[in-house]
Amino acid sequence: MLQKMRAFLAVDAKNPELIQAQLAAFSKQVPLLYFTLLTNTIALSLTHYNSAPLLLSFYLPCILYVGCLVRIWFWWRTRRRVVPHEKAVRQLQGTIYLAGVLGFCFTAWALALFPYGGAYAKGHVAFYMANTVIGCIFCLMHVRAAALVLTAVVLVPFTLFFATTGNAVFVAIALNMMLVVGAMVYILFSQYRDFNDLIGSQKALIAKQKETQSLSDENRRLANLDSLTDLPNRRSFQFELDTRLAAATRQKRPLAVGIIDLDGFKPVNDAFGHAVGDRLLMAAARRLGQFTSEHIFAARLGGDEFGLIVEGDLDEKALAQLGDAVCTELQRPYHLNGITAKVSGSLGFAQFPTAGDNAAHLFEQADFALYHAKQHARGGTVVFSQEHEREIMHQSRVDQELKSADLARELHILFQPFIDTDTQQVLGFEALARWDNAMLGRVSPDVFIRSAERSGMMGRMTAILFTKALQTAVQWPRGTRLSFNLSARDIVARPTLETLLAVLEESGFDPHFLDVEVTETSVMTNFEVARCNLNLLIERGIGIALDDFGTGHSSLGYVHRLPLRKIKIDRSFITDIGTDGLSQNIVKTIVDLCRNIGCVCVVEGMETLEQVTILRRLGCSIMQGFYFGRPMHAAQTLDLLDTKTAIAG
C-alpha cells in the first residue's frame, strides 16, 4: 500500500514530454499561486493583528512570506531557461514535497489563529482556508500529485477541526468544503487525464512529423544524390551552380565550372560487364571526392561524366594545375576484384565571368573545353579561352552556311594514293572530303563534318561525297581500290548505308575493290549496331578498314570481333619513328598482328625517306603520305595511274 502511495505521488520520469509540459504549465501558474497565497495570508494577519499574539499575527506570517518570496524569486530567475529532463523531474518532485510542507505550515498557522477574535474573525479563518486551498488546487492542477498532497494536508485537518467545533455553521462549512473539494478532485483527475492525453497526442504528432520530415529529408537527399557513387547528382549540381554563381555575381568574385569525362570507360564496361563498370565509377568518384572542400564541389552528371564547381581566385594556370592533378589521380590503374582497368579523365573548365555570365553559358563553354580536351589533349585539362570563343563563333558560322549551302556544287573530293613500296605501284586512293564555301572559303573537314553530324545533315553529305568519289573511281583501271571514310553517325544509320549501297550499284563500281574506313571511336560508340550495319556492307563484298589504329582504348578487344580487310596505323606513331624505340615496337606489334589475322596493314603519314626505310625494315610495305603523293584532283589520279600499273589488292 505504501509503495503504491509513493508511486502515485512520484513524478513519471519515463515520460520526458509530459514532464516538460507539466513544468511549463505550472511555471505559468506560479505567480497566481503565490499572489493568492500572499494576499489571503496578509488579509488574515491584519484581521487578527490586534486580537492574536504578535508571534501568530506578525512573526510567523513574515516567515511564511519570506518562504513564498524565495519561491517567487527562484521562479523569476529560471522562468526562461531550458530545463534539462533530470532537473525538471527534481523540480516537480520538489514541488510535490513543498506543497505538503507549505500546506501543513499555512494550515497549522490558520488553525492556531482560530481561538482569537470574534465570530467574524473565526469565520475569516474558515473562509481563508477554504478559499486559499481551492485557489491553490486550481494552480496546481497540472501537477496532480502536488494538488492531491495539498488537498489531503489541508482538507483532513480542516474537516476534522471544524466538524468538532460543535457549531452548526462550521460543521456545515466543513461538509460543504468536503463536497466542493471532492468535486474539484474529480475535475482534477479528468483534467489531468485530458492533459496527459493531449501531451501524448502531441508526442505522437511530433513523432509523426519527425518521421515525415525524416522521409522528406531522405527523399530530398536521394533526389539530389547519385545512388551509385554517393556524389551529388546532376540536379544537385545545377542547384549548387545557380546558388554559388548568384553569390559570385553579388560579391564579384571568380568561379569556374568543370566537366570531366572518363576516356575508355565504355570499353571496360563492355568487356567486363556493368558490375565492373559500376565499381570503376565508384572508385573514380572516391578519387574525385578527395578534391572536394568548402570551395570545390563535385557531382556525377550521368554515365561516366562528372562536374566540378571551383570557387576562389584561380587564374588560368592555377586552374589548369588543379585539373591536371585531378586527371593524374583518375589515370591511376583501378584494381577491381582481380581486374586491372586503366582509364583517363579529360577535363574542360570555363571561368566566370570571362567565359560566361550565366550557368547555362558556362556549362556550354566547359563542355566545349572538354570536347577540345578529348580531341587534342586526351587525359588532360583545357581551360576555355578566347581562342575557343572564336572557334565556337566560327563553328556557328559554319553551321549556318552549311544549312543554306549548295552541297552538290560546293563539296568535292581529293584523292590520296597508297603505294605498294615493294613494287612502287599505286594500289588505290583514299577519298578525302573538301568543302569550298563562297563566304567561308576552304573549311576543314574536321569542322564541317562535325557540324553536319550536329545538324543531322551527315547522311545527305555522305551520299553526295560517295557519289562524287565513285564518279572518279569508275574511270580508274579495274583493280584500283577506293577507300571511303564513314563517320560515327553514318555507321549507326542504316538508311544512310542502304542509300550508299544503292548509289554503288547504280555506279557500276565493283564493291570488291571498295573499302570503307571507320575509326575505333566511331565503332565503339554503339558497337552492336555498328557491327550489324557493317555486316550489311560486307555481304556485298565491301571491305572494312580500321582507321587510326592504336589511338583508341580497346583496339585488340574489337579487332577479332570485326571481319577487317585492312588496318591503318595512325600517323602519331610515325612522326618520331626514327628516334622513338617505343613507336617502332608498337608498329612492329601491329604489323605482326595484321599478318597473324590475315589483314592488310597500311601505314599513313609518311613524309620522309627515313620513315619509309625504317618501316620497310619493320615489315611494312603498303604506305600512304605526302612522301608518295599529296591529295589530288580526279584528273591527277588518272595521270598518276597512266604512269604506274595498278595491282588488284
List the helices and strands and how they pair.
Blueprint (H helix, E strand, L loop, with lengths): L1 H8 L6 H32 L6 H25 L6 H29 L5 H21 L4 H20 L4 H56 L10 H18 L3 E9 L1 H8 L1 H16 L6 E7 L2 E7 L4 H16 L2 E3 L2 E3 L2 E9 L6 H18 L4 E3 L2 H19 L2 H4 E10 L4 E13 L3 E3 L1 H11 L2 H16 L7 E5 L2 H4 L2 H14 L6 E6 H6 L1 H12 L4 E7 L5 H5 L6 E4 L11 H17 L2 E5 L4 H9 L4 E3 L9 H10 L6
Parallel strand pairs: 6-7, 9-11, 11-12, 12-13, 13-14, 14-15, 15-16
Antiparallel strand pairs: 1-3, 1-6, 2-3, 4-5, 8-9, 8-16, 9-10
User: Mean of the pLDDT scores?
Assistant: 85
**Gyration radius from CA atoms, angstroms:** 47 Å
The CATH class of the largest domain is identified as Alpha Beta
Class derived from helix and strand content: alpha/beta
CATH arch. level architecture of the largest domain:
Alpha-Beta Barrel
Could you please say which CATH topology of the largest domain applies here? TIM Barrel
Helix content: 55-70%
**What's the number of extended β-strand segments?**
16
Strand content: 5-15%
Low-confidence stretches: none
What's the shape?
rod-shaped
End-to-end CA span? 113 Å
Counting DSSP H or I runs of 4 or more residues, the number of helices is: 24
Number of domains: 3
The strand order across the widest sheet is 8-9-11-12-13-14-15-16
Instruction: Report the biggest beta sheet as strand number plus sense, adding barrel if it closes.
Output: 8 strands, mixed, barrel
The CATH homologous superfamily of the largest domain is termed EAL domain
